[in-house]
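>> received
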Amino acid sequence: MKGHSIEYAATSGGIPVVVETIPGCGSYACMAAVATGSRDEYPEIFGLSHLLEHTVFRRTGTRDSYQMALEIEGAGGELNAFTGREMTAYHSITIEETAAVARDIVGEIVADPAITAEDTEMEKKIVLQELSMIKNEPDRYIHDLYLTTLWRGHPLSQDEGGDEKVVAGLTNKELRQYYEERYLIPNICVYAAGAADLDETVAWAEETFDGMAGGRRNPRSPPSMPGSEYRFIENKADHYQVAMGFPVDKSRVPRREIQQMLSAIIGSGTSSRLFQDIREKKALVYSIYTSSNVDSDAAALTAFMSCTEKNVVEAMETTSSVIGKFLAEGIEPGELDRAKRLIKGANIRHMESTENRLYRLGVNHMVNGETATLEDRLASIDAVTEDEVMKLAEEILRPDRLNTVVLGAKSHKLKKYDSSALSFRSATDEDYPPLLRDAERPH
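>> returned
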């Protein structure tokens, strides 16, 4: 077997093929991805990408969904898909000896879906239940609400599920038209991981997808960096979900690992500043963590927390003071090294799964235009410096860019809350002015 590597090729029709071979691996995973998602929709079809992803699993030219289930599970495998803001992907994982089954079914779903009226109506019922379910899972729903708020007025604000009323009115003819316009080269990419071979993958991609020519890439433009915004959104849950975050101009971040280290220092793990100051020392929240979200042309760094109503304001204000202290005092001795080991450990554990390797391979290549072996990824993490982290922090952790969303039961106080009180003043030095110019900030 070949040594661990990431190899690149293209089919005769121009489809990119990326394969990560894992020595000694007994599992095989493959993916066919399409560069279209919720950011590429317009209001009249908001939610179509996701509905189409569901519907193509219903029936193909030679199989119905039950036959697919029988074959893939009989091959010791699983079959799945996901819709994102920027891509839709269909993937399967099996044992090495039945890899051909995975390729055959994934290929047929993408290249030869039936998209009948009956299947569309059946799948709409399932998708509408899914959208309703998400709203009843506030710790998940807050992520969609936050990105919708952050990128307001731009297609990146459109969450993957879409609008329930729009989805309810979509027809199989609209799905078929969208499929025939978007599921074409140059929007298609093919990936494989595990007990995978590059030549074999290229041959599969050529035979299955090279006939899907004649398309064009969706026109996209990056969002402008939004100013500060505060939203209170009412739901029936007694526990409140809070998102506080900042937009990131991706073009100004030389390596995404820098943003990841900043996120880790502030709020990843139980040793992070936010967890220690807000949960451990003050018991204001049940959970608190940061998330580093990266799209093709923009990014975000966000703190998420859950707490009771009486603690929401103090938790938000303490979060802003923690950020203020970090900006004022910088990174503590040993703090960056701990963050690096935390993220390296998560990467190593995550990459022990063939399915996770495939997911990361596909998303990083299609959305970010990059791939890296685990070894290269770890080296890039190690290369991050304190100066790089602080430079990024001072650029993005700004009160005039803070976007806050609070989700919870009806509250007049929280609905009318003035988020300008979140000034990022350090709790340990109330006279320290926030966001000094570089020349004024002590180093």
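>> The first helix runs from residue 48 to 55.
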